[in-house]
């Protein structure tokens, strides 16, 4: 039953991550991975899962943010609120 529940949670988390920015995706993946590793190291304890999840979320957010930054690209938002990247205007640093 635990494996079934874990599969459901992973499936829902994966589906929810499809609408996220790379920073948010990195944090979610890092938190999940960190929680699994923390649980394995702690021997199934909740403390290890919480600590691993927190550390993993922070590390994943940093990695996701690094991927998100693209030199020479600017972030724009259209009138509908959608975000996109495009080349920066000439002379923009």
Walk me through this protein's architecture:
The chain is about 65% helix and about 10% strand. Helix 2 (about 20-40) runs antiparallel to helix 3 (about 45-70). The longest helix is centred in the middle third of the chain and has 23 residues, at about 45-70. With about 90 residues, the chain is mainly alpha-helical. The termini are far apart. Strands 1-2 form a two-stranded antiparallel sheet.
Largest sheet: 2 strands, antiparallel
Q: Estimate the global geometry from the Cα principal axes.
A: elongated
Biggest β-sheet: strands ordered side by side in the sheet: 1-2
As a percent range, the share of helical residues equals 55-70%
Question: Which regions are unreliable across 5 or more consecutive residues at pLDDT < 50?
Answer: none
* Mean pLDDT over the residues: 74
Give the SSE layout.
Layout: H1 2-16, H2 22-42, H3 46-68, E1 73-77, E2 83-87
Antiparallel strand pairs: 1-2
Helix pairs in contact: 2-3
Signal peptide: 1-19
Pfam family, one: Gly-zipper_Omp
Domain Glycine zipper: 26-70
Short overview:
This protein has 93 residues and is mainly alpha-helical. It is built from three helices and two strands.
List keywords for this structure.
mainly alpha, 3 helices, 93 residues, two-stranded antiparallel ribbon
């Amino acid at each position: 039953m635990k494996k079934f529940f874990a599969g459901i949670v992973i499936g829902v988390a994966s589906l929810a991550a499809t609408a996220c920015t790379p920073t948010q995706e990195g944090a979610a993946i890092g938190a999940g991975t960190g929680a699994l590793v923390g649980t394995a190291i702690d021997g199934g304890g909740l403390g290890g899962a919480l600590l691993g999840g927190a550390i993993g979320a922070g590390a994943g957010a940093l990695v996701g943010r690094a991927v998100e930054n693209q030199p020479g690209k600017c972030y724009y938002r259209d009138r509908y609120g959608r975000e996109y990247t495009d080349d920066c205007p000439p002379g923009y640093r």
